[in-house]
Amino acid sequence: MKKIDIACIIDDDPIFVFGTKKIMQLANFCETFMVFRNGKEAYDKLKPIISSGEKLPDLILLDLNMPVWDGWQFLDEFIKIPNDRPITIFIITSSVDPADVIKAKSYDAVSNYIVKPITIAELKKMME
């Protein structure tokens, strides 16, 4: 399995973020983390990084239900940013709404839809 350099977590739940970081460390999943509490904060920080050509996250774990900007608002704006280097996006959410699953499939940038909590087995699948 290839270790990821930077993983980005966009989620407003501090317990989920803490647990996910712990699981990632146990799985030797990544070197470092970027964490954002909502889609707007993530967009505002990631857009200049992309524009300047700095090191980007290899992977984004995106929650859907957040304040300020939810996951859909983030995705709608994020995919408009010109970027030569693809970033793998996984929606990690508590939503089991079939409409959300269908909507997620309409985004080419979204690799998978995973219902919380995330497991070491799912992280290993992401690394493959």
From TrEMBL:
Q: Which PROSITE patterns match?
A: RESPONSE_REGULATORY
Signal peptide start-end: none
Cited SMART domains: REC (SM00448)
Q: Which domain of life is it from?
A: Bacteria
Q: Which UniProt keywords apply?
A: Phosphoprotein
- Alphabetical GO biological process terms: phosphorelay signal transduction system
Residues in Response regulatory domain copies: 6-128
Q: PTM 4-aspartylphosphate: at which residues?
A: D63
Name the record gives this protein? Response regulator receiver domain-containing protein
Organism this protein belongs to: Flavobacterium gillisiae
